[in-house]
Amino acid sequence: MTLWTSLEPASATVDPGSSTSVRLRVRNTGDIVDEYRFEPVGDLAPWTTVEPQMLRLYPGTTGTVELTFAPPRSPDAAAGPNPYAVRISPTEHPEAVTVPEGNLTITPFTEVRTELVPPTVKGRFRGRPRLAVDNLGNTKVTASLSGSDSGEKLSYDLRPANVQIEPGRAAFVKATLKPRQIRWFGAKQEQQYSVALRRAGTDPLKTEGTFVQRGFLPGWLAAMFGVFVALTIAFVMIWLAYKPKVQSAATERTQNAGALAPPSPSAPISSPPAKKPDKDEPSDLPGGPDLGGGGESKDAGGGGGGGDKDDKKDEKKDSGEKKKKKPRKSTAADAVRALADREEGRHICYRALVADKGWEDPVCDGGVVGEEGGPPIKALNIAVSGTKGVTGASAYVAEGWKDGDEWQKAADGKNMYIGSSKEAVSPMQGFTIKVFDGTVCQRSRVQEMRWLDRVCTDPGDWKYGGSPMDKKHQLEAVRFSV
Fold it and tell me: Per the UniProt record, which residue ranges are transmembrane (predicted)?
């Protein structure tokens, strides 16, 4: 051993978003001049800097380098003790590598963000918004939820009513709002409400929203109904006042009752001639007219065999066609149109083409497609409603922004595809996206990294999501909201 080291102090504490420093003393205990290189290793290496990165020491001399730790204020900076290490590589004695270790304690912090999706819901009997709760801190969040409004005009059903969220993750709470009084007639009425997130030791975090209650019957229909009732009453009154007199003109004719004698028993009764079947009408009788191609039909015995064979061939053909047909997989446009029919407002639905798995089922308004730590995403299928359309483009791990690829766009309720299903094209590393009315938000999960921060577009502008272009990590999972 030609090297002596000492960390001062061996343990340190730092707040996320700030920095702290530790000194590392190094002494050359050998008998020749040597040069030492310093490299941080471990989970804290991305947040550690060493100054200087190289020392040249004479025998018996001591040098000092400074280690600076600057963890970000994000869920990636896990709260609690975190070990770190520095690899020291001598130039003259490369086999005598030394790795001194220390301990850095990162203090906990809590940051919670909530959002109602959509912020405004409409309905006659109920509204169904969703509350997205993002844990942006580095500790687990446990909270309960409740709804309130002025005048207590709404009732609230929140599922789940209690959430536990790990750092860097999100939870979605389904809310059902019901008006306590139904509006049968009249114009729509807006009611402000809020959903409160309550945590021990902190003030409630309230998220405001609007419920627009519509009348059960439109105003014009109520006016027409009133006019109809008034006209009906007026007609009945006129009828009662001017009721016409009705006299019967029928007379008895009993004197002529014997004029019509019954037919004589000896007289033959002729039956009417049988009606000939029309040429265009099919006959239900055996031996009837042949509707297939003119001429007289064969007798019942001779024609039965051929008919059975034809029926069997038709049955085989039908069964073969049924086997060949496969059910069509639901697309993002199918999902967003069905959701828009049930709930008014802005919606976005999407699905992912995952390598070695194929297309997933579509999800909507904040659901996750892809798999954390799973195979990469090759392509995305996106559809929107209430945003006047969507547009986007994809970036690939190997090709980056491919030459010849153009921005894809689709109107409300239509499919937009970005990425490529070809095996020769690498998986996606990121994408750009925007909507033509309002904003679209996204969070991405890429290889070797946790969930990235939530990014929202400015109105009419686009934003990039996914791996940093210089990292070229594969896109693993993604979720959207509008």
Answer: 220-242
